[in-house]
Structure of DDE-1 domain-containing protein:
Amino acid sequence: MSELLMKGSPAGSVGYANGTGWMDCEHFLKYLDHFSKHANVIQDRKVLLIIDNHASLRNLEAVTKARSLNIIMVSLPPHTSHRMQPLDCGVYGPLNSQYARECDKWITNHPAKRISVYDIMEIFGKAFLSIAMLGKAVKGFEVTDTRQTYCEDSSESEDDINPECIYCVRKFMSSKSSEEWIQCQECGRWVHEKCGCVGRR
């Protein structure tokens, strides 16, 4: 990805690009590293990461990596992040509004020019820095009432670390790196994406 695409971005930002524009497993794993670095995760201190229900975030490789980084991931039920995700409620709304205002300013200051992909991060950076306040994030937690005690059983079994596909019974550790795994939200068991025919009608 061109460095020019990140020009003017807030300090500490990283950028990744893919063909679809949607998060995928490969990029989420990179994001976990970035998150871990900035969340100040240390050995005896776990950090909570609230995620939506997108399949790219709920795969065994991501869960395993998060666990190794002392990150506890909590997945929200489908179609609820706009109500339950603290950042959706406390930060993204004001950020969207401020970004729109910054775009208007940019257009006013650059008559007869269009905003290009090389201008977006600079505009976004200004919007982000003007609304990025701890109070807004805290307010997001108050609005969503996201309070729950998370406890972790320290006695992990072999099945927790190296589960098997409920269809083909192959173990995770013996699968190919390109194979996607998906966890059932009800029973907690794992399946290869291909074995479970996920996404097929």
Observations:
- Residues 163-200 form one domain.
